[in-house]
Amino acid sequence: MPTHRRGVHSRPALLEFPARIPLFNRMDSQQSRVLVQLRDLILKGEFVPGERLAEIPLAEKLGASRTPVRLALASLEHEGLIEPSPTGGYQMRRFTSQQIADAIRVRGLIEGFAARLLAEEGAPRQLLRELHECLERGDQTVNKPTMELDDYTAYVEANDRFHQLIMDGCGNSVLRRIMDMLDAMPFASPSSMLPMQSSMEEGQQWMRLAQRTHHAMVQAIERGQGSRAQALGEEHVEIARMNLDYALERPELATRLMPGMRLVATKNKA
To answer: For the chain, what is the domain count?
Structure first.
């Protein structure tokens, strides 16, 4: 059992933006909006690898001036989502399946350590209540005889919230910055591969397995079992890795369900 329990009021502020994007600190609301919109377009597969990202067309598409677009492109290049173009400016990059698999594995390491911190340093009652609310919402969806589209959407929301609570609750801003960087990688965030599960006959079974792991993680946190919480967090991402393999074996289906998959080279192209 942990020897020190951290109080609610001693927890550091967690919502600072990652230092890896210093330009963002100088952005006004329009500039931050452009950054979010561009990142969303990229992850939804609006651009193909090698496509040049010119300031003027993007500004017209987003209804913004060139300055916030220029700053957003510089930030996205810093994140690793785009790369310099040989002809000047920026272009869309291609990711290898190994890069995505590596990001998923690192996410497991980060989340596992965050869960360990919560277990060993003590999770506030409010955080535990919110985690149990996520578990309840997840149970309501995955335990239905047959999941419909709305159920998958509800599970995605509960799943994203669960993982966010673990990261924000651990009290370590460095881990949060690393996770923000990983979340910017295509299909490395917690729910990014769930559309593939919705197409599988065994997809709902995989979600039930993930949900059981969520329950076990919360139980380990409540009991102060740091090593167990960490191991569960690391193992949990194996489902995401299996989803990635399933998607790479079915590129046409994967691109239809997740257009952003066009950014990821299949194994024989990597």
So the answer is: 2
